[in-house]
Amino acid sequence: MSKILLVEDDEVMPKIVERILHKEDYQIEHVTNGKEAFQRLEDTNYDYDLIITDIMMPYANGFEILSRVKNRKEGKPIPVIIVSNAGNEAMILEGFKLGADDFLKKPVIPGELLIRVKRLLMQYDK
């Protein structure tokens, strides 16, 4: 069972993502801000198979989470999907420059999210 960390401060989005991904038996852990995300990553020693994060959040934004995950030296690489309603070109490019594996604009299309999650998990499972 793949373990996914969802970092999202919106109230509705986590319910949608969990409903989509639980059907495939993914284990979802949800935190509501960057500070909680950093704590969870440290507590679990980065033991996640995928991270889905919003960009605009309190305490630390999605780019900071992305940078920390992608710049760590030890452990397995973890794919990161950025999901945001702030989908201007500059933000998307910044995310990819920092190492994002994918970018989805809100509101997410359930089938598209599921396919992208499966694809990334298969790529990183090699």
From TrEMBL:
<protein>
    <submittedName>
        <fullName>Response regulator</fullName>
    </submittedName>
</protein>
<dbReference type="InterPro" id="IPR011006">
    <property type="entry name" value="CheY-like_superfamily"/>
</dbReference>
<dbReference type="InterPro" id="IPR050595">
    <property type="entry name" value="Bact_response_regulator"/>
</dbReference>
<keyword id="KW-0902">Two-component regulatory system</keyword>
<keyword id="KW-0597">Phosphoprotein</keyword>
<dbReference type="InterPro" id="IPR001789">
    <property type="entry name" value="Sig_transdc_resp-reg_receiver"/>
</dbReference>
<feature type="domain" description="Response regulatory">
    <location>
        <begin position="3"/>
        <end position="121"/>
    </location>
</feature>
<dbReference type="Pfam" id="PF00072">
    <property type="entry name" value="Response_reg"/>
</dbReference>
<feature type="modified residue" description="4-aspartylphosphate">
    <location>
        <position position="54"/>
    </location>
</feature>
<dbReference type="GO" id="GO:0000160">
    <property type="term" value="P:phosphorelay signal transduction system"/>
</dbReference>
